Amino acid sequence: MTAPVFLVEEDALTGVFPGTVFPLDGPEGRHAVSVRRLRVGEEIVLTDGAGTGVHGTVTAVEGKDHLEVTVTSVRSEPLPQPRITVVQALPKGDRGELAVETMTETGVDAVVPWTASRCVTQWKGDRGLKSLGKWRATAREAGKQSRRLRFPSVAEAMTTRQVAALLADADFAAVLHEEGSTPLATAELPETGDIVLVVGPEGGVSPEELTAFAEAGAHPYRLGPSVLRTSTAGTAAAALLLGRTGRWG
């Protein structure tokens, strides 16, 4: 197995070089010692989640939540091109976390929750903050599980107007729709810049939303002959785009 990944504070790896002894404590240290049961001599990867990672060896374990890592190499992962953002309509129950988890594992760069008109679930007040927190925590854990050095961002929930503005600024904008006349597999994609993909709710994207997105430059595309659930469509589409753009090459 590849070495497990643990998340450290932003900028914590600045100035770290091979030979540096880096302490890992707090919740991540506790997980490494008490859950993963890492021991002296085992390999480990630390990342800031923003593209910088260090590979090292555990050289000391103290108590239940502290270990020391001697750095053997430092790596900086460049910003991926093109960047892929998925606008995900809010699903029911825990299907939102499922969508975020699988899209993170697949390799998307950003997830935008969308309060579509046909969403049964609505994020309001404390419930909305709690749900957003779950999506962000899911992205962090899935980023570690999939051995990523650059974790996807999860934005605050957007309205249809805000999503339209996001689409207008994209280099390629698409709405997944079962009645789309053009397959996503044949769309002309940019080599660099931003790709923004909209995934509607279980009830579908409304005609008014389709019009607003079309005016912003986003056209409907279909994935294939079958209709996927909102919690899986983004992952399938992202995999297709990652393959076609060469990021999975």
CATH architecture of the largest domain: 3-Layer(aba) Sandwich
Strand arrangement, largest sheet? Answer: 8-7-6-11-9-12-10
CATH superfamily of the largest domain: SPOUT methyltransferase, trefoil knot domain
Report the CATH topology name of the largest domain. Answer: Alpha/beta knot
User: Pairing-aware structural class of the strands and helices?
Assistant: alpha/beta
Quickly name the level 1 CATH class of the largest domain: Alpha Beta
| Uncertain parts | none
Number of domains: 2
Oligomer: single chain
Helix content range of the residues, please? 25-40%
Biggest sheet, in brief? 7 strands, parallel
Spatial separation of the terminal alpha carbons: 22 Å
Number of helices: 6
Order of helices and strands: EEHEEEEHEHEHEEEHEH
How confident is the prediction overall: mean pLDDT? 96
Supply Rg: 20 Å
β content, as a range? 25-35%
Number-wise, the strands total: 12
Instruction: Note the overall shape.
Output: elongated
Could you explain how this protein is built, in words?
The chain has 249 residues and is of the alpha/beta class. The chain has two domains: 5-76, Ribosomal Protein L25, Chain P (Beta Barrel), CATH 2.40.240.20; 83-245, SPOUT methyltransferase, trefoil knot domain (Alpha/beta knot, 3-Layer(aba) Sandwich). It has helices spanning 26-35, 95-106, 125-145, 160-168, 207-215, 230-244, and strands at 5-7, 21-24, 43-47, 52-62, 66-76, 83-89, 110-114, 153-154, 172-176, 182-183, 194-199, 219-222. The strands form two sheets. Strands 8-7-6-11-9-12-10 form a seven-stranded parallel sheet, sandwiched between helices. Strands 1-3-4-5-2 form a five-stranded mixed sheet. Helix 2 packs parallel to helix 3 (125-145), helix 2 (95-106) runs parallel beside helix 6 and helix 4 (160-168) packs parallel to helix 5 (207-215). Its main location: cytoplasm. Residues 80-241 form the Ribosomal RNA small subunit methyltransferase E methyltransferase domain. One of its GO terms (cellular component) is cytoplasm.
